[in-house]
């Protein structure tokens, strides 16, 4: 198979790329940071890994790069929409509107643009798989989750609605929804480089790791062609959904 992974320079994306390359599949790794992508390509080998160093929000640059892929990478079997981010954990009335707009741009608009770009060819081939990396934040609200959770709720419903359109096209769609995850830059980005906040979040929490997400992605992608895994919700054993908050006036 040929797998296109977005946000592939570090974290989940890099782990997913490594897993598929290890199993002798070809990987197209897309991310902004060319230096990180080249390190990944050197590790996996140029025969198994091609890189696209662009901003996922630059749709024209993404399309141009995909159109100019090497011939043996052109027929993309699996799209892993992994690129995404959270910015801040402030209450809705205190947040920076620019952070909200950036999350919508990356987590929703870029995801749907790339999906729409590749989907017609998958339908034509009567084969393909869209794997979206969602979040439990799309199901369970929490203070400060506001727009991030809303973007992941969109991804969840978008995935299910894609299946409704593709039930007779032999194209599969899966949404993988992780909970607390370590080993990536996600929280470092969310807290805008505040290492103390990141360290406190993960201290003694035993979170799931990028390799765990990669195993889930690989598993759903390698099921028999007649099997579609709609959703996988993943949490570490140390995490569970909490009781509803009730504020009591005193």
Structure, described:
The protein has 8 helices and 7 strands; from the N terminus they run E-H-E-H-E-H-E-H-E-H-E-H-H-H-E. With 250 residues, the chain is α/β, with parallel strands linked by helices. It has one domain (2-234): 3-Layer(aba) Sandwich (Rossmann fold), CATH 3.40.50. It has a 7-stranded parallel beta sheet with strand order 3-2-1-4-5-6-7, with helices on both faces. Helix 4 links the parallel strand 4 and strand 5 (128-133). It is globular, with a radius of gyration of 18 Å. The mean pLDDT is 92.
Strand and helix map with partners:
Elements: E1 2-6, H1 11-22, E2 26-31, H2 34-44, E3 49-53, H3 59-67, E4 78-81, H4 97-125, E5 128-133, H5 146-166, E6 171-178, H6 186-190, H7 195-202, H8 210-221, E7 231-234
Parallel strand pairs: 1-2, 1-4, 2-3, 4-5, 5-6, 6-7
| Overall number of strands | 7
Report the radius of gyration as a whole number of Å.
Answer: 18 Å
The proportion of residues in beta strands is 15-25%
- Kindly report the name of the CATH homologous superfamily: NAD(P)-binding Rossmann-like Domain
Relevant terms:
15% strand, alpha/beta, seven-stranded parallel beta sheet
Short account of what is shown:
The chain is built from 8 helices and 7 strands. The chain is an alpha/beta fold and 250 residues long.
């Amino acid at each position: 198979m040929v797998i296109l992974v977005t946000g592939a320079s570090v974290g989940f994306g890099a782990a997913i790329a490594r897993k598929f390359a290890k199993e002798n599949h070809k990987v197209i790794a897309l991310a902004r940071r060319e230096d990180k992508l080249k390190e990944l390509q050197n590790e996996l080998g140029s025969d198994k890994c091609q890189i696209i160093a662009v901003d996922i929000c630059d749709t024209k640059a993404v399309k141009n790069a995909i159109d100019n892929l090497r011939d043996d990478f052109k027929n993309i079997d699996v799209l892993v929409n992994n690129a995404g981010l959270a910015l801040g954990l402030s209450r809705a009335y205190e947040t920076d509107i620019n952070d909200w707009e950036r999350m919508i741009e990356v987590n929703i608009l870029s995801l749907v643009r790339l999906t729409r770009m590749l989907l017609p060819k998958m339908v034509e081939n009567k084969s393909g798989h869209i794997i979206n990396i969602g979040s439990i934040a799309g199901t369970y609200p929490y203070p400060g989750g506001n727009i991030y959770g809303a973007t992941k709720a969109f991804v969840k419903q978008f995935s299910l609605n894609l299946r409704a359109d593709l039930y007779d096209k032999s194209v599969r769609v899966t949404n993988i929804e992780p909970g607390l995850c370590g080993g990536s830059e996600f929280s470092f980005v969310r807290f805008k480089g505040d290492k103390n906040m990141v360290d406190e979040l993960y201290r003694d929490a035993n979170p799931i790791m990028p390799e765990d997400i990669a195993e889930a992605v690989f598993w759903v992608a390698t099921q028999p062609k007649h099997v579609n895994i709609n959703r996988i919700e993943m949490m570490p054993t140390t995490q569970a959904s909490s009781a509803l908050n009730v504020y009591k006036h005193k």
